């Protein structure tokens, strides 16, 4: 029983990271109707930023995370302005290919700057592990911080979208870009804001991911990026609560199938579940049925 | 007008991006050539042997490649200073393969164009197998210092200095059993990697005969190699006294860190893949305290040969040599011994040299850093005794 709880909590922690990353995918898709495949690599850049600030420059973890958030926000806006905005009117396929191109560009820049040797990441979490049930159950500080961060981010984001003008503008743009523009909403500005928020979250996800699984290479972001994309589709792409549910479910399924079925087949099981869900409900768990406009 | 301006701008941006990409490519090529070392004696030309080396100088196993490159270079310098092989000097050229099979074959072709006569390499198993297919076609003598997969000595022209994976697996089981390190053992291995599975399979089959019980046998794959919480939890629940890690150091560093996060204290035992653990950038060395690994070489051994090697390596490369450097050093001396035995000369072509060396390898016996009286069988396998070392206070210590 104790090990089941432990597997479950670890899965929840992994799922929380997936959920935070999935938010970036789902927001960008919901508003700009594009898949930003470079999102996973923004996470990696965030990780390297924290690493540089904390381990090389010797500043505190809080400063590291803050600087990473700022850098990734700027990076997200720059990527959007340079690579995606000129293609706003182009076919979705062109934008998709550009996103893949940006992803490789970021990976290769990191390869050039930081080299391909793996670096050991110093955890940004300093709170001690929680020992329960006479030490039979240990919950690491990283796990606690990851789960709490995920919940806080979710609440803040939902409030932001519901209560603020910018949030309402995002909703309007995701509903109908043309009508929103006619109503006087700055569409380009709103999309840039979406990328800024998504990339800031990627920086947080990078710091949490690398703290829980302390290694850093230029490819650190790619696999979690793909898994988070799956989580976003799983929960219903475009839906913020969907990203949360998709991410958490994916993390828990992955860890439990590793524990009780096979540690080698966990990825196959995760993707198998995705296929089943999409067969039953093609728009994902919380996805809305959208009639495609031509 | 405005629209065409925008188009022009995006085209310019695209060109700029491509240009910056090619600039990146150009630069990385540049570093590759500066990093690859070419050791040519002053009196080069007709009368010198051309030995090529291939290994990862960059990439996730770069620590191995750099050690091999340096260890071999040291041996070649010594041999050249002492008169060379049968009076002929050695020219040395080491190429980077980043641990990648395709790049290894490219490196092999580059070296062939350079005029290589004997190949010392490659360092890691998968590239070694890929290059073996080429070198056996060319009948090029190939001696790998550290390619431990079974297929690294598949062809007649291939020999190795290190133990093969199955030999490491059975040697580990024997070592744990004979020294009574543990009776209950958990294994965590990479089921997508040929090196790891090779050791794992033999270890499992050998453990029973050594009175070692396998209480947990957990795998991971290359796509899922950062989260080890489940595998460690299972090892802990199974009551294992020791966790056997037949994997590479980058994942081992993660496993050690996560074991600490979850408050799991146990002993860890690994094979030569763990060598390099202490060199991971920013790695907390206290995590590796008391980790044991099976290796034929310990830098703090008291014999004269090791001490001399360690001293000159430290002086030249500013770090303590690991077993890969020692393997490469022995490889060069084995090539020297076999060449002298077969009486090959630098004016012979690679194929003729290979025929001579293939036969001579089974007839020589050398006292190297990684074993005394090392001999080779015609299968290409070395015959020497395994040793284990322990990490104490952040340094390797003989057990």
TrEMBL record, chain B:
Residues in the signal sequence: 1-23
Database matches in InterPro entries: BCAA_transport, De-COase2_CS, Leu-bd, Leu_Ile_Val-bd, Peripla_BP_I
Protein's GO biological process: amino acid transport
Residue intervals of the Leucine-binding protein domain: 49-384
Region feature (Disordered): 27-49
Membrane-spanning ranges: none
Keyword Transport included in the entry's annotation: yes
SUPFAM superfamilies, alphabetized: Periplasmic binding protein-like I
Coiled coil region boundaries: none
PROSITE patterns linked to this entry: ODR_DC_2_2, PROKAR_LIPOPROTEIN
Gene3D superfamilies named among the record's database cross-references: 3.40.50.2300
Keywords: Amino-acid transport, Signal, Transport
Keyword Transport among record annotations: yes
Family: Belongs to the leucine-binding protein family.
Protein name: Amino acid ABC transporter substrate-binding protein
């Amino acid at each position: 029983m104790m090990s089941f709880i432990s597997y479950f909590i670890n899965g929840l922690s992994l799922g929380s990271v997936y959920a935070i990353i999935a938010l970036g995918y789902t927001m960008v898709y919901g508003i700009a109707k594009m898949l930003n495949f470079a999102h996973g690599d923004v996470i990696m850049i965030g990780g390297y930023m924290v690493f540089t600030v904390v381990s090389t420059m010797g500043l505190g973890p809080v400063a590291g995370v803050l600087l990473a958030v700022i850098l990734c926000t700027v990076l997200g806006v720059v990527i959007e302005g340079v690579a995606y905005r000129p293609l706003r009117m182009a076919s979705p396929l062109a934008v998709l290919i550009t996103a893949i191109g940006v992803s490789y560009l970021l990976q290769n820049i990191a390869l050039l700057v930081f080299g391909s040797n793996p670096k050991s990441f110093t955890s940004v979490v300093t709170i001690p592990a929680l020992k329960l049930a006479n030490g039979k159950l240990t919950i690491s500080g990283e796990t606690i911080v990851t789960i709490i961060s995920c919940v806080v981010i979710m609440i803040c984001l939902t409030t932001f979208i519901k209560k603020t003008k910018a949030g309402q503008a995002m909703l309007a743009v995701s509903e109908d870009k043309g009508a929103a523009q006619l109503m006087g909403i700055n569409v380009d500005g709103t999309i840039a804001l979406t990328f800024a928020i998504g990339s800031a979250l990627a920086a947080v996800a990078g710091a949490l991911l690398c703290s829980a699984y302390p290694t850093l290479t230029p490819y650190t972001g790619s696999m979690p990026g793909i898994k988070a994309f799956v989580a976003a589709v799983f929960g219903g792409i475009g839906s913020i609560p969907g990203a949360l549910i998709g991410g958490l479910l994916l993390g828990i399924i992955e860890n439990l199938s590793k524990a009780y079925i096979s540690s080698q087949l966990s990825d196959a099981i995760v993707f198998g579940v995705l296929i089943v869900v999409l067969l039953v409900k093609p728009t994902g768990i919380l996805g809305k049925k959208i009639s495609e406009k031509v | 007008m405005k629209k065409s301006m925008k188009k022009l701008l995006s085209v310019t941006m695209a060109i700029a991006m491509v240009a910056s990409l090619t600039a990146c490519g150009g630069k990385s090529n540049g570093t590759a050539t500066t990093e690859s070392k070419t050791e040519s004696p002053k009196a080069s030309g007709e009368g010198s042997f051309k030995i090529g080396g291939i290994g990862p100088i960059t990439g996730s196993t770069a620590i191995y490649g750099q050690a091999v490159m340096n260890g071999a270079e040291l041996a070649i310098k010594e041999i050249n200073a002492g008169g060379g092989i049968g009076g002929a000097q050695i020219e040395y050229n080491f190429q980077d393969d980043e641990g990648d099979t395709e790049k290894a074959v490219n490196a092999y072709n580059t070296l062939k164009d350079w005029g290589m006569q004997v190949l010392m390499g490659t360092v890691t198993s998968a590239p070694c197998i890929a290059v073996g297919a080429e070198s056996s076609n060319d009948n090029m003598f190939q001696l790998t210092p550290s390619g431990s997969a079974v297929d690294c000595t598949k062809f007649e022209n291939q020999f190795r200095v290190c133990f093969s994976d199955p030999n490491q697996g059975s040697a580990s089981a024997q070592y744990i059993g004979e020294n009574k390190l543990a009776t209950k053992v958990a294994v965590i291995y990479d089921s997508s990697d040929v090196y790891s599975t090779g050791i794992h399979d033999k270890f499992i089959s050998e453990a029973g005969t050594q009175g070692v019980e396998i209480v947990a046998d957990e795998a991971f794959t290359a796509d899922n190699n950062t989260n080890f919480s489940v595998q460690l939890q299972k090892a802990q629940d199974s009551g294992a006294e020791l966790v056997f890690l037949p994997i590479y150091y980058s994942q081992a560093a993660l496993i050690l860190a996560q074991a600490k996060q979850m408050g799991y204290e146990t002993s860890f035992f690994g094979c030569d893949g763990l060598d390099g653990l202490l060199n991971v950038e920013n790695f907390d060395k206290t995590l590796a305290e008391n980790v044991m690994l099976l290796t034929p070489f310990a830098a703090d051994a008291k014999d004269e040969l090791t001490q001399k090697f360690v001293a000159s390596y430290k002086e030249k490369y500013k770090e303590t040599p690991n077993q890969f450097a020692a393997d490469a050093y022995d490889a060069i001396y084995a090539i020297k011994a076999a060449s002298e035995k077969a009486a090959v000369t630098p004016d012979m072509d690679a194929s003729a040299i290979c025929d001579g060396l293939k036969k001579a390898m089974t007839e020589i016996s050398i006292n190297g850093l990684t074993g005394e009286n090392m001999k080779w069988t015609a299968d290409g396998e070395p015959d020497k005794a395994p040793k284990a070392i322990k990490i104490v206070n952040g340094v390797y210590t003989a057990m």
